[in-house]
């Protein structure tokens, strides 16, 4: 274990002092500039709920331009009191959301079409298993030669003629 280190000797100030517990738990702090920030503090600042007015303004810009440039994001951020980075993340999230919705919608259409094709396929399979020739009345199970089929049709015609 390392002892407490005073960084004043190295040109640092009191806020840069690193204790044993901070060294042992490396994930407990992050260094930004000259100060250490605990992960708990970062997690507290991590989620930003936008006001309805902010959302309305951002969505209005999104309808006009789905991919704003840095200047547009900065301008909107200043107008709404948001950091440009938050505006950038909002636009990225919205684009991802629309892409995901579009893919979901497309997939559901494909699923519906696939179900319809399966039903049609089953109908054709059923029709083939129960199929019979209209002219001769024989079941069409195996492929027969056209000669044999013509003979059967002729046979049916002759039977009908003989019955008259």
Describe this structure in words.
Residues 41-101 form the Homeobox domain. This is Homeobox-leucine zipper protein MERISTEM L1. Residues 1-25 are annotated as: Disordered. Pfam families: Homeodomain. One of its GO terms (molecular function) is DNA binding. By secondary structure, this protein is mainly α. The chain folds into three domains: 7-46, no CATH class; 52-125, Homeodomain-like (Arc Repressor Mutant, subunit A); 132-163, no CATH class. Helix content is 62%, strand content 5%. It contains six helices and two strands; from the N terminus they run αββααααα. It has a two-stranded antiparallel ribbon. The N and C termini lie far apart (114 Å).
Count of DSSP H/I helices = 6
What does the radius of gyration come to? Answer: 38 Å
The stretches of 5 or more residues where confidence is low (pLDDT under 50) are: 1-32
Per CATH, the superfamily of the largest domain is Homeodomain-like
> What is the rounded distance between the termini?
114 Å
Biggest sheet details: 2 strands, antiparallel
- H-E order: HEEHHHHH
Q: Per CATH, what is the topology of the largest domain?
A: Arc Repressor Mutant, subunit A
Sequence of strands across the biggest β-sheet:
1-2
CATH class of the largest domain equals Mainly Alpha
Strand content of the residues, in percent?
A: under 5%
The mean pLDDT is 74
Overall shape: it is rod-shaped
């Amino acid at each position: 274990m390392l002892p407490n280190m005073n960084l004043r000797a190295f040109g640092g100030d009191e806020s840069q002092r690193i204790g044993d517990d901070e060294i042992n738990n490396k994930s407990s702090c992050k260094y930004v500039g000259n100060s250490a920030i605990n992960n708990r503090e970062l997690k507290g600042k991590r989620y930003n709920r936008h006001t309805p007015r902010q959302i309305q303004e951002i969505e209005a810009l999104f309808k006009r331009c789905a991919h704003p440039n840095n200047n547009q994001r900065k301008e909107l951020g200043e107008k709404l009191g948001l950091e440009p980075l938050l505006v950038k993340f909002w636009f990225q999230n919205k684009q991802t959301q629309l892409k995901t919705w579009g893919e979901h919608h497309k997939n559901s259409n494909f699923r519906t079409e696939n179900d319809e094709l399966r039903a049609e396929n089953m109908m054709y399979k059923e029709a083939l298993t129960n199929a019979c020739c209209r002219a001769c009345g024989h079941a069409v199970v195996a492929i027969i030669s056209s000669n044999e089929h013509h003979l059967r049709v002729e046979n049916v015609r002759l039977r009908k003629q003989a019955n008259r």
